[in-house]
Amino acid sequence: MTAANDSTPTRRRGRRPAGEDTRTALVEAARAVFAESGFDGATVRAIAARAGVDAAMVNHWFGGKEGLFTKAVLRVPFDIDEVLESVTAGGPENMGENMVRTFVSRWDGAGGEYFVALIRSVTSHDDALETLKKVLVSRILNAVAAHAGSDRPELRAALCATQMIGLGMTRYVARLEPVASADIETLVPTVAPTLQRYLTGDLGDLA
Amino acid sequence: MTAANDSTPTRRRGRRPAGEDTRTALVEAARAVFAESGFDGATVRAIAARAGVDAAMVNHWFGGKEGLFTKAVLRVPFDIDEVLESVTAGGPENMGENMVRTFVSRWDGAGGEYFVALIRSVTSHDDALETLKKVLVSRILNAVAAHAGSDRPELRAALCATQMIGLGMTRYVARLEPVASADIETLVPTVAPTLQRYLTGDLGDLA
């Protein structure tokens, strides 16, 4: 984790300058409101109210709703290198299990709202899709697939994307039971073998 | 296929009454425009222009944009019984492969726009999520899992949902290569074993 991580809990409030507090509160509130309402449905007033600050602070610190959206949703709220390390550290044969653990534990924290906000913004912002593709796939899954060392790494990364995007959609957006409420120890033995096969297994006879 | 299927090609135009032609053209145009722009971004004018009819026809036949959305996106454009038959007819051991073939062949046709329109409307319409959950999961995947005859059918249906929703998101919404352009004979050997395991395989040691 980097010190600048946006999802750091705000317990250290007393040691921060007030401006940073306000910005952190607005970013966290924005993620929640964008997740609930999407970009078009979210209002500056609702975000400021949830953060407990004056609506004028949104313009002051972010130049408006669009700027706040960029900061809260289009910038990734976790350290990509740390995610990569967490998925790959156990070697190729444990990547499936580590991928489920790493993503679901982050998404279940502050990241769940981030994931939902990103998906719900796909309509209004082509950038939201590009973020999903560039960060989840290009920077994380392609690197994991390269570490796995198997043939056709691009196809393997994209197949992992189908499972991880679908898991996120089902658990956080559609909230479909029993996947929505399943604890991580239920998800690991069910979903990890899929990812493990996509990364290092036999993909069948392709032309 | 039922005769009333909305995705029936419009070649039989000469044999239909003009009103039905107009409605079919508007529904098809609406699906395309909602897929591109989401509900909020789509205008009656744009839909009517794409259908080649006067914008007043939207109010005349559907009572406005909301009514047209209900007809074009919230009502499922395929015969659910026929989909179920196609997935289950080969018996439990072929359901994974048949699920990929059945869904991808329908989505690659007119259904791709339908899927994208549904996903892009999640922000504006809670109904869109309910449709995804009720039709894809409750009516199709739960029935398939019941046919498969294994333990924990609800969990198995939801796991199939993670893979199928993720495959649809990756291929049609994110358009991530090489999954976006892969032909069905590439997708079947890669993805079908996942679905087959979710339906009839070992899901690991659960508490």
From TrEMBL, chains A, B:
It comes from the Bacteria. Transmembrane segments: none annotated. The keyword tRNA-binding does not apply. Residues 1-22 are annotated as: Disordered. Residues 20-80 form the HTH tetR-type domain. Keywords: DNA-binding. PROSITE patterns: HTH_TETR_2. GO terms for molecular function: DNA-binding transcription factor activity; transcription cis-regulatory region binding. Residues 43-62 bind DNA. InterPro entries: Homeodomain-like_sf, HTH-type_TetR-like_transc_reg, HTH_TetR, Tet_transcr_reg_TetR-rel_C_sf, TetR_C_16. This is TetR family transcriptional regulator. It comes from Prauserella muralis. The lineage of its organism: Bacteria, Bacillati, Actinomycetota, Actinomycetes, Pseudonocardiales.
